[in-house]
Structure formats: structure tokens, C-alpha cells
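Long-time lurker. I teach an intro course on protein structure, and each term I like to show students one example going from raw sequence to a predicted 3D structure in C-alpha cell notation. This year I'd like something fresh instead of my usual example. Would anyone be willing to generate the C-alpha cells for the chain below so I can use it in lecture? Attribution to the forum is fine with me.
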Amino acid sequence: MGGTAPPGDGTTPLFRYSDDLSGGYNGGLTLLHRGTSCAASYAASAATSTPDVNKWAVHAWSTTSFAQPFKLGGLVTTSLFTTAVGGVTASGRLCTTLIDRQTTGGVPTDRVLGTGIYDLSTWPTDVRRITFSFRLAQEETLPADHQLVMALQLRGESGADISLLYDHPLYPSLLEVATSTPL
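-- Reply from a regular --
Happy to contribute to a lecture. Here you go:
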């Protein structure tokens, strides 16, 4: 969620962020399908619990702390490159949750701003860009020193795990929010 493009060019190898998981994927980050509702975090006690929403099922990215209040409202769009792990044919149900995060004394406090769900009866079996949008219920203002966080989670109703490709010049991902705040 930064403003700087990832380094490299079309010959740069894909980064592998999920080396602690087994399964066939070319690179990126693997999301395991877990849970029956959209989760923006997981319990510390479930971090490595295989059947639960855990550290392999929810991943989040954040902005730096805002220097001034940040207003957002209306349309939120997520665009990313993805594929089903192992190229299997399966459905997918991906949640994007926006969070207002305040950190005090190193401890984050999160407030959910809104969630969108993207359902596909057949998730891409090779790398494809997916783009989906949802609307926030109301305009929000994040105070200065807060962060905007995007959490992604693949729900358990999905038929397979997925990989997300990002931080690579061939696979630019984005989160776009409607805002009246000058950047």
C-alpha cells in the first residue's frame, strides 16, 4: 500500500512469501481457506491451529500513519493477481476488510470500516487479475497518526487455497478508496 513500485523488471523472479506451507504455487503469498465469516484478524491462540482462521488465512497490509485526518467513503476497489494453488478447479470467496488502526504503546486497536466479498464459482487456474468493488456504509474520517489497513481472507467455503502475486513489476496490485483528502 505504498506509493513506490516494486524493484525489478519482467525477468525478476517471483517472491515466495509462503515457504512455510506445502502445495504447488509459483510465488507470492498463499491464503488458506478457513472460517465461515470474513475475518480481519485471528486469535493469538489460533495462530498455528490448522482448522481455525490462522496466520496463513488472514493477511494484512497497511499505510504509514497519516500526517493529517484522512477522509474516505463510497467506493472501495481491490485489484490483484491470483491463482488457485496447484492450478486446481475450485470456487473462491475472498474477503477484503478495511480497518482504521490506532497504535498506542506498540499495541494496535482496530475498527472495521467495511468489508466486501468477491465470489467466483471457478477461481483462476492460472495467474489472472481480479478486480472487485464494494461501498462503505458511510463516510469515515481517520484521525492523524492512524493507519488504513486492508485485510484479505479466503473463506472456508472456497474449494481450494489461493496464491496472491504482488510486490512484482509484472503483477501490480492496488487498493483504491474514494477520498476528498489531498495526498
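Some talking points for your students: The longest strand covers residues 107-120. The chain has a mean pLDDT of 90.
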